[in-house]
Inverse folding.
């Protein structure tokens, strides 16, 4: 029951949250791996991370939507991020996880190869991705976050979960 | 219950009544939905496999009956009469009289009919739209009425009645009726029909409620602007309702809205087709048959479409694989399937599936986000097993590829 209550209240928490905290949250990213690349989404849109579950297939959805799951009474469509980026599909294994995002209108789950960690990446460590963007495609890459030696590709979640065609620049040339 | 509410509303005595916020009732409904899922999950637990469950099954039966009764009781909590909406509409009639210069007599019937509060909250705008349409386009100016031998005062009837699990709200007028030639011409111009199509009245009339469709020669302040039409379609889609339009020249137009009484739980048959589960409202199913070789007909001339003989009448077969434009290498022969025969307004259609699984009260979730593109569906149904099924709308299946 407490779980249910907690589940129902996120909107209230958001409203109560001070702007100070929100600023910090804006710098926090959940990083995950897809085909040996590190990606990141802003932590404020992540509602939970769950293990892979039985997916129910549904008709009339894009190829990269594998189906839906029932997460405690919520129907959540699952997007295979590999398919979204045009990368070859891979069998799901024990590392495969689902990152559930809520962008305001409806939740969606991202199937990724594995989650890494939550990192704080201040704005001055993020290189803007404008140079990567070709004019006719909306950019799914928001920027490149430098974390020590590593680089995480920070995604624009809104573009990611939309059904517009996206292609990653380095993959398009590969 | 309606009577009680009525008395309280009018005499303000109401000692036996309580005001409860709709938020609290919604929460109760949500919890009941989860309770019923949870009961099903427990009862269907794989841990029980192979155990001797004689007593358990009896207890489960009682529990299931109880849950269903509690659901019914909770659903009733949310029922309100359409009276309030009808009263607000009645007030608008005065305004319409002033703006159109027509005299209108509004006859209201069945205002004590009960509907879900969620339904009643959304009825006003679409009904206002239909009423305005009648007042503006349906009823003739007084001089035309006199010439046609009708009373000067135009008459609009607004009625509600419960039929089975549906509420039917009808707006009918005694005006000039819909003009087939004008409407068909406009519909053809907009590409809704081919130049040689001669659609039946019931099919044609519905286009007047399509967004952007208006046949009014002059744009009036009331209707004829082509806006607001969408409010009817959108609301009816959200409420899982249907619009039926009937008209006779010189005699009037009748617009009927058929809406489920409650949106909370839906009594469904669960079907499996390949890896997918579908749910179908019980009242949409005419019968379930096992096709026999002698009853199946392939029409090579029509893209290999199939027909099925059902008591000496051929019924068109709608393959879900075709409908959802998925081309599997091989479709199973009809004789290997179970055919669900739907009673639709376009006549019966047969939908072959692999298996009929169960009958369940399901909780429906709307199709949002990535699922918004699923055609011919009311929403997703959460099943007791924790699985998710797509709830089919047989009317839109019968209508073919459209939404």
């Amino acid at each position: 029951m407490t779980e249910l209550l907690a589940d129902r209240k996120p909107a209230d928490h958001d409203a109560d949250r001070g702007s100070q905290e929100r600023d910090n949250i804006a710098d926090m990213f959940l990083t995950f791996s897809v085909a040996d690349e590190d990606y990141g989404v802003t932590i404020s849109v992540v509602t939970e991370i769950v293990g892979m579950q039985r997916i129910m297939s549904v008709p009339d959805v894009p190829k990269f939507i594998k189906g839906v799951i029932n997460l405690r009474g919520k129907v959540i469509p699952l997007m295979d991020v590999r398919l979204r980026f045009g990368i070859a599909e891979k069998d799901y294994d024990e590392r495969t996880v689902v990152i559930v995002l809520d962008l305001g209108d409806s939740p969606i789950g991202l199937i990724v190869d594995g989650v890494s960690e939550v990192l704080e990446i201040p704005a001055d460590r993020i290189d803007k991705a404008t140079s990567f963007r070709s004019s006719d495609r909306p950019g799914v890459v928001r920027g490149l976050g430098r974390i020590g030696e590593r680089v995480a590709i920070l995604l624009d979640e809104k573009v990611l979960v939309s059904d517009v065609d996206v292609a990653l620049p380095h993959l398009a040339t590969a | 219950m309606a009577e009680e509410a009525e008395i309280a509303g009018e005499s303000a005595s109401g000692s036996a009544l309580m005001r409860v916020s709709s938020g609290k009732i919604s929460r109760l409904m949500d919890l009941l939905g989860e309770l019923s899922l949870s009961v099903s999950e427990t009862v269907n637990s794989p841990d029980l496999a192979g155990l001797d469950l004689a007593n358990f099954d009896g207890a489960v039966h009682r529990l299931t009956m109880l849950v269903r009764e509690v659901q019914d009781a909770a659903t009733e909590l949310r029922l309100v009469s359409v009276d309030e909406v009808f009263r607000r509409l009645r007030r608008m009639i005065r305004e319409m009289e002033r703006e159109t210069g027509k005299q209108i007599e509004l006859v209201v019937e069945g205002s004590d009919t009960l509907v879900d509060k969620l339904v009643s909250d959304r009825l006003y705008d679409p009904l206002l739209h239909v009423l305005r349409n009648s007042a503006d386009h349906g009823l003739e100016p007084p001089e035309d009425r006199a010439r046609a031998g009708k009373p000067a005062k135009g008459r609009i009837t607004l009625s509600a009645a419960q039929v089975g699990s549906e509420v039917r709200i009808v707006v009918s007028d005694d005006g000039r009726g819909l003009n087939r030639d004008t409407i068909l011409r406009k519909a053809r111009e907009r590409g809704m029909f081919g130049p040689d199509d001669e659609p039946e009245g019931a099919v044609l009339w519905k286009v007047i409620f399509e967004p952007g469709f208006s046949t009014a020669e002059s744009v009036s302040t009331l209707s004829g602007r082509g806006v607001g039409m969408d409010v009817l379609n959108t609301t009816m889609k959200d409420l899982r309702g249907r619009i039926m339009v009937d008209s006779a020249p010189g005699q009037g137009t009748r617009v009927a809205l058929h809406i489920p009484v409650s949106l909370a739980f839906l009594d469904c048959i669960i079907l499996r087709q390949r890896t997918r589960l579908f749910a179908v409202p019980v009242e949409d199913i005419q019968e379930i048959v096992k096709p026999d070789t002698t009853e199946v007909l392939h029409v090579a001339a029509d893209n290999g479409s199939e027909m099925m003989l059902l008591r000496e009448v051929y019924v068109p077969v709608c393959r879900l694989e075709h409908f959802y434009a998925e081309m599997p290498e091989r479709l199973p022969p009809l004789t290997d399937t179970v055919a669900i025969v739907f009673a639709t307004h376009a006549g019966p259609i047969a939908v072959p599936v692999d298996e009929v699984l169960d009958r369940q009260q399901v909780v429906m979730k709307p199709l949002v986000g990535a699922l918004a593109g699923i055609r011919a569906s009311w929403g997703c149904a959460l099943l007791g097993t924790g699985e998710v099924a797509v709830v089919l709308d047989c009317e839109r299946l019968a209508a073919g590829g459209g939404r």
